[in-house]
Specification:
This protein has 113 residues and is mainly beta. The chain is 12% helix and 42% strand. The protein is built from one helix and seven strands; from the N terminus they run H-E-E-E-E-E-E-E.
Amino acid sequence: MSAEIIRANQAAQRELEDVDGRGNATADVSLTGKPRADTGGLMAVVVNITNRTDETASYAVQVDFRDPEGEVAETRFVGAEDLEPGERAQPLAISRKPPEPRLTAEIAKAQRY
């Protein structure tokens, strides 16, 4: 993972610390699964972030990976900084948990700032 990605993910985590509720940007974010064959069996999702505003914006997203009982097994943070209006970013959120039990991913929070 590059230093730039690590820095953006850490910035996203800091940004989400004070967010109440799910944030102001959940409509701008969606998840797309990646085949486990491409990820060494790990659960990975592409976080699709689109700046739907008319100003440059940065985004912070919290992805929760849930186990079959619905409990949060792991949380990952991703970010995209300085997206122009209409621009899209697609960072990856990768679980480090073993392939079993199967996890599901959800957007827990998404904040535009």
